[in-house]
Amino acid sequence: MYIKVNNLSFKYKNANNPTILDFSFSINKGEIISIFGQSGSGKSTILRLIAGLETPKEGSIEINNMIMVDNNTFILPEKRGVGMVFQDYALFPHMSVEENIRFGLKKMSKSEKSNRVDEVLNLVGLQEYKRRYPHELSGGQQQRVALARAIAPKPSLLLLDEPFSNLDADLQAKIREDLKEIITKADITSIFVTHDKEDSIAIADRVVILDEGRIIKIGSSKDAFN
Amino acid sequence: MIKSREIKSIFNVWSILSFIFVLLIILPTLNVSLNLFNETSENWGHIKEYLLLDYIVNTLSIVVFVGVLTLIIGTSLAWLVTSFKFPLSRFYKWSLLLPLAVPPYVAGFTYHGILNYTGVIQTFLRKNLNMNINQNYFNIMNHKGAIFILTVVLYPYVFAIVRSYLAKQSADLIENGRVLGKSPMNIFFKVVFPISRPAIIGGVSLVILEILNEFGLFNYFGIATFSVAIFRTWFGLSDLDSAIRLAAIVMLMVLVILLSEKLMRGRKRYGYTSSKIRPIQPIELTGIKKVFATMYCSIIFGFGFLVPTVQLLHWSLLTYKEILNIKFLEYLLNSLKVSTISTIIIVVISIIIANYSRINENILTKIYTRVTILGYSIPGAVIAVAVMIFFIDFDNKTFALRQMISANTTKLYLSTTLVMLLFAYVIRFLGIGYNSIESGFDKIGKSYFEASRMLGMSVTKTFFKIDLPMIKPAIISGFILVFIDIVKELPLTMILRTFNFHTLATKAYQYANDEMIHEAAISSMFIIIISGVLIYLLNKNMSKGGRRNVHKG
How big is the CA angle at A126 (ends A125 and A131), to the nearest 5 degrees? Predict the structure, then answer.
């Protein structure tokens, strides 16, 4: 198993009830997993825990046989090699598209970095937008830059938080297909969070259905919703 | 039980520095509180019996009147310039802030100079109209005069906060009122007033804290408020313990004010800040309303800024030949030096604590935030007592240690240097810088920070590459606000300065106190010019920052 999550529990400081309770599952390399649930079901919290942006109360997370967190270990988010696309994209407004993508590239020569930037921009189809600034892009373009930025450092795992929530409904079908294509091409193990069944069915290999911090069902995207 | 992984996450540069700073801020205050339990002297009995009631009545009566007046003037002006267009409305939108550049003690002696027997008004009446005037009519050095002066120079606190609060409110609120056919007056009392309540209360609280802090004006006018009483007891009677007791009473008042502010504001602290909100569109005033609006703004602006400035300018022209010399340059440079150094220290500490607190939101960092902004609520006189005692204690306790290192060290060490003054400035004005920088962090939110972490950058690298460039407008605002306050500052500077060290503020006050009002003019003018220019830049910086935000999203 490539990713192992064991008995994860988490409670926000001001909350009365745990947000995540005894959450366990595992993912194979290259799989695309969807975590599906209503708002408040704790689905984004799972992503934040895996990313290292929150610390679990109990449980452990392993990626590629490396312990990310357990009772004795806590690997900082910047050391986990996990990429994340945020719900609001969080593109740095004072940097151009190119600078945004270059930001995460380390231990590479200048020309290697430039090549990698071109490569991922090609992948998301935004070669011509290199010098633009985030506010000069449409919502869909911003999302693709965020995706390119997250993919560029070749993370071992890609997390996407509600990738479609900020986009126009009529664009959604097209963007779903594009996203699936990009992730498949990049060949990255991915987890994305959504509250839309259609998203899960269209993109994911497997779906985890979450309610009030507990897993209700795990199954292939066809079976999970039956 | 603490897990081993948690211990590691607690210790880093940000947490350690924050802890040290907070400790340094709070130590003098804690130290001075211990002295409260010393035995009382006979002076205290005398003060308690004959003077205390006066101090309380003087202070509270001025607080109440100035509080109410600044509330009315500040709020109404803010509403006028945000909701209406009238002649000069664009100019007054920012220039009504300018009285902030005039320190109350400067306004105090200037108005006294205008109104006294040799002043411009009485001279005019005597020479041209041959009138002999009852001096009582023209005496400003009393309660009423102090209330007038504090009102016209302190209302900008209310004005500034309510104005920026209204600018963030949705136009829908006001326009609904208009559509429903309410008159502007009706809208003001039924809509604007209630929705701006948190901002108004915030502004008035600042005014009250400024009054409690004020020393120069009251001392010059001979009104015994608490700040004045602390000084007199400390230096006049050399009775430190009684001074500390008085300070404790002021702090009790401050606590009551802060607590009631919190209660009155309730949970509505900031209102919306989203850039998606359509701002209020000002409507054009016509006819007599237009005239009244311009007149009202002009009168307040005139009293708070124009009249004192023009008078000071006139006096400056009379005296510049004697005053503008190499000595004066030294005072100017001293002012700039201490202001710059302490402002930089304040901004750096604010950034470190604010960044640490927003990354780790817990009880500890909440306490940090409280402590950081505490100093601004403490009157200068109280901080002066606390810092002085702290440094003398420190010097005494480290004397033996210092002797081991160097034989010719003196018993008083740090307390004879400017370090003491800078330290006091930092405690007193850290809150101003902190608020500004914290709101800068609030505005950008945490997701850029998290995105950077996910792209492999540590907290510190993220800070320099992402946070710092993004909060630059807030840093500039914080810097300017703190700088203005320190250039004007009087009580701390007066007590804690080293021998023969003068700033523009202490020099202006010294001249005025020696009845050399004309000579005081140039130092005062420089304070006003420096602060005025900074207020102008601040206003520009803020409106630029606002516009940039609209692009986002």
Answer: 165
Position B551 scores a pLDDT of 38
CA separation for the pair B315, B313 (Å, rounded): 5
Contacts of A32 (CB under 8 A, 6+ apart): A180, A183, A184, A189, A190, A191, A192, A203, A204, A205, A206
Interface test with B, best of A63, A91, A94 (most B CBs within 10 A): A94
Q: Quick check: B220 and B512 in contact, CB under 8 A?
A: yes
Contact map slice: B 289-328 vs A, CB within 8 A: none
Q: Do B551 and A135 touch (CB under 8 A)?
A: yes
Q: What is the ipTM of this complex?
A: 0.92
Q: What is the pTM of this model?
A: 0.88
Q: Could you give the domains of chain B?
A: 14-551 (1.10.3720.10)
Please give the Cα distance from B56 to B141 (Å, whole number).
19
C-alpha angle A211-A73-B361 in degrees, rounded to nearest 5: 65
Please answer whether residues B339 and B483 qualify as being in contact, where contact means their C-beta atoms are separated by less than 8 angstroms: yes
By the 8 A CB rule, do B70 and B157 touch?
yes
Closest partner residue to A77 (CB to CB) among B362, B453, B551 is: B453
B43-72 confidence digits (pLDDT tens): 888 888 788 888 999 999 999 999 999 999
Q: Are A120 and A151 in contact (CB under 8 A)?
A: yes
Whether residue B455 and residue A93 make contact (CB cut-off 8 A), yes or no, is: no
Spatial strand order in the sheet of A66-69: A20-27, A3-10, A58-63, A66-69
Q: What is the dihedral of CA B114, B115, B116, B119, to 10 degrees?
A: 40
- Integer angstrom CA distances of residue B169 from A15, A207, B542: 30, 43, 17
